[in-house]
Amino acid sequence: MIVLGLSCACLAVALAAWISQKLFYEAAQRYQSSFTEQARTELSDLFVFVDLTHLWPALVCGAIGVTLFCWLLTQSVVFALSLGALSVFLPRVALTSALRRRQKRFDLQLPELLLALSGSLRAGASLAVSLKSIVQDATTPLSQEFGLVLREQRMGLSFAQTLENLYVRMPSESVELVTTMLIVGTHSGGSLAECLERLCSNLLARQHLEGKIEVMTAQGKMQAWIMGALPLVLLLVLSQIDPVSIHLLFTTTQGQGVLLTVCVLETLGVLCLRRILAIHV
């Protein structure tokens, strides 16, 4: 009976290990596919064209390196595995953050574009010639996006379609207003220069208001980071005051569980505070 029980236990453990390995492999395959597709799309939106064949192997090697480094530094398996898993998701967050910063820079450049475009139209130039001359002297990302608009137009697409493609690449309310104004202005035959000047004034006023809101909420955002970093600073201070007790956090199962719980709660707290501030903005 003992041999039979041990055999069943070994078989159950082996089956559980096989199922876990299969589920982990499938989840890794799905994440690899989604991450590679997202990286390809977002890098192309950033006008960065690179070969992504070795992206996933490099990411896996980097995660393994981070895990080994943290394990050698802290001797904590749970902490090292947690940071290694986190390093797999950080590139995805970095790409999304880079796209948001690029979108913000593009929105900030739109009033200057509208003002220059209005002046060029008043001087008697056509819309296409005005856009071409402005794009040549503009900085990124505005020069890249409107340069692509002009290239698509030369390829045979209509001006309205190229502007709709621009809005798909840069989905913001400011871009929607500008593209709608240009499409309506080119078809209505009215004074497009005056409309562009009024829209430029509205966008500048809106950006000024958004800047004031960001300044007013900067204290709350900084408070979120300070409150999130306070336990880490306290851990460093206590490690100097009582290194023996702090060492137990990294070497015992209970201590590692406490560290993992603190990291999860800290991350959730910072994300919740930032989400609240984002909602109020």
CATH class of the domain at 106-204: Mainly Alpha
Separation of termini? 68 Å
CATH architecture descriptor text of the domain at 106-204: Up-down Bundle
* DSSP helix fraction: over 70%
How would you summarize this macromolecular structure in one to three sentences?
The protein has helices spanning 2-45, 55-74, 77-122, 127-137, 142-154, 159-169, 173-188, 192-241, 243-251, 253-280. By secondary structure, the protein is mostly helical.
Describe the protein in words.
- By secondary structure, this protein is mostly helical.
- The protein has a domain at 106-204: Receptor-associated Protein (Up-down Bundle), CATH 1.20.81.
- The chain is 88% helix and 0% strand.
- It is built from ten helices and no strands.
- The longest helix is centred in the last third of the chain and has 50 residues, at 192-241.
- The radius of gyration is 27 Å and the shape is elongated.
- The N and C termini lie far apart (68 Å).
- The model has no long low-confidence stretch (mean pLDDT 79).
What distinguishing features does this structure have?
single chain; about 280 residues; mainly alpha; Receptor-associated Protein; 10 helices; about 90% helix; elongated
